[in-house]
Structure formats: structure tokens, C-alpha cells
Amino acid sequence: MTPLRAPLEIEFDYTRSLGPVLTQFMTALAGRRILGARGADGRVHAPPFEYDPVSAEPPGELTEVGPEGTVVSWSWMPEPLAGQPLAEPFAWALIRLDGADTAMLHAVDAGSPAAMRTGLRVRPRWSATRTGSIRDIACFEPAEGPAAAAAAAEPDGAAEVNAGMTITPVRLHYMHTASPGESFYLRGLAEHRLLGQRCGVCGRVYIPPRGTCPADGVPTHEEVELAESGTVTTFCIVNVGYPGQRVTPPYVAAAVLLDGADIAFQHLVLGCDASEVRMGMRVRAVWGESGTISHFAPTGEPDAPYESYARYL
Ligand SMILES: [Zn+2]
């Protein structure tokens, strides 16, 4: 049977503090100034360092550099990716700003690779909006040519500047191909059936099936349908909230050992107060949309004796 394939997307915002030095750097960008830091050896680093590479000391007062600079090295981006500074082909360049001794990485909107060269003089094209982030520089552009339209947008003096914190969107998009065992399991879920595989050597039943027995190292071929009921072997109560959380804390994530299985799997236990969940509690799968288990809920049966699940903890 053909393995299943589906696009998967993992996406989240990474929010963090910029710290004292980069907060000054980003705040200055919102004011259309670029700052660097002078090190113990007299060299000016732009962007500024947080700790001097020579003395390991934090920088003193930051110093303004640029805004024009010189391309030190570059590479052409023929097919820009989503989220990059420009939608049209551009150059990633190391740019040494006037007054600085180190180079910073940014995009150069040169139009074509023929217009790019080491030694090219460039100037920042400021973003029309000011946010207190590196995105306040929309990109750099050749200093000789006419200024692009966006460069004419002057700071409006009333921008929302949230320097001090930065949000980095993280996005990973890929095509996942399920293994034959996983495909078999997923097709079972679509029919509200829980399918595992039994090892022909030790007799253990694995769900989800991995296609091999980790104890014996042999392929597993025998398919087994398992009950929807099982036992909570161990659990934790989630008390911490986070953006995008679908269940309101406190709630329980548990290891559930399905009847007839030899390995527990993680799932939510809902349908009762979190404080009522306990080791040995009997639970049953509650099906959700499109062939998924929404969660497990208590069956009301007497608890399973500890000996019945002790070796699966
Ligand atoms: Zn085995």
C-alpha cells in the first residue's frame, strides 16, 4: 500500500528580549540612525557587539556610523523566499558602513547581479514604518542611482516602537512521507480503528507501529486492532499557559496504555477535573474530526491494579 504523504507546517513566533546593547541599536534604527560600538582595540563594530571580542567588556557609549557604506562581499538571491526583505531578486551583502571597521549583513536592491560588485557604495532605504527592528532598514540600494520611492517616506515621529523586545517568526514547511507502519496506523484512524503491529519474536504489540520491534530488531508484520479503552500509566498536569493553547489549564497530558498494547502513548485526558486523574484510571478514546482522537475520557470503571501496568511505566 502506498505510504501517505502530506504537507506539514510548523509555525510560531519567537519573542525575546534584545538586551541593553541591541535595544539601543534597534531604537536608533527607528530614529533613522545606525549605531556601532568601539572596541578595546579601537575598531568600531557595526552592528555593536554585546561583549568586546578583545576585552569581553560590554561597550561604552555607542557611536553613530553610516548611513552609507561599501559592499565588502555579496551573493545573489535569484528566487527570494517568503519572509525575506525583498520579493524581487536581490543580493545578500556584507556592508561596511562609513566609520565602521566591521561589516553587517543586509539585502541590497541592485536590480540585477550585473549591478552588484565588491566596493559598490550603498545607502539604506528606510522602511515606511518604524518598529525598532532591523526591518526599519527595508534594504540597501546603490548610492549612485536615484532614490527609490520608499526612501522618500520620512519618519512620521509617532511610530509604534517596541524596542527592547523582538519577535522572530519561525516557519518550517515540509512534505512528510509516513512510513508504511505509520501509514497503516493513520488509515486505521480515519476509520476510527486503532491499529498496531505485533512482533513475531517477543509477541509485544506496538501502537503506533514503527515497522520493527525495538527489542528484537526484526520487522513486524502481524496487524492487530486494539480496543479504544486503556489505562493511565502516568500523567502530568499542565498549568502553564502559552499562545495558541487549545485547552485551558489546568489539564492533563497522560501516558495511556491501550488494552492489548505493550507501549503507552501520550494523549490528553479530559472530561473530568484534572485533580481527579490518577495512575490506573480507566479511560476511553473520544474521536475528533477527520479521524483523530480528540482526547481520552474516564470510563467510570474501577481503576486497573498497579501490577497490570507497572512494567509499562
Ligand atoms: Zn520483539
Walk me through the structure.
- The chain has 313 residues and is mainly beta.
- It has helices at 19-30, 180-190; strands at residues 5-17, 34-38, 44-45, 63-65, 69-77, 90-97, 104-108, 121-126, 137-142, 165-177, 194-198, 205-206, 222-226, 229-238, 251-258, 265-269, 282-287, 293-298.
- It is built from two helices and 18 strands.
- Strands 7-6-5-8-9 form a five-stranded antiparallel β-sheet, with no helix packed on it. A five-stranded antiparallel β-sheet has the order 16-15-14-17-18, with no helix packed on it.
- A hairpin with a 5-residue loop joins β2 (34-38) and β3.
- The mean pLDDT is 90.
- It binds zinc ion.
Strand neighbour order, sheet with most strands: 7-6-5-8-9
Report the helical percentage.
under 10%
Strand content: 35-45%
Task: Please compute the radius of gyration using only Cα atoms.
Answer: 29 Å
From the spread of the alpha carbons, the general shape counts as elongated
Assembly of the depicted chains: single chain
Compute the average pLDDT. 90
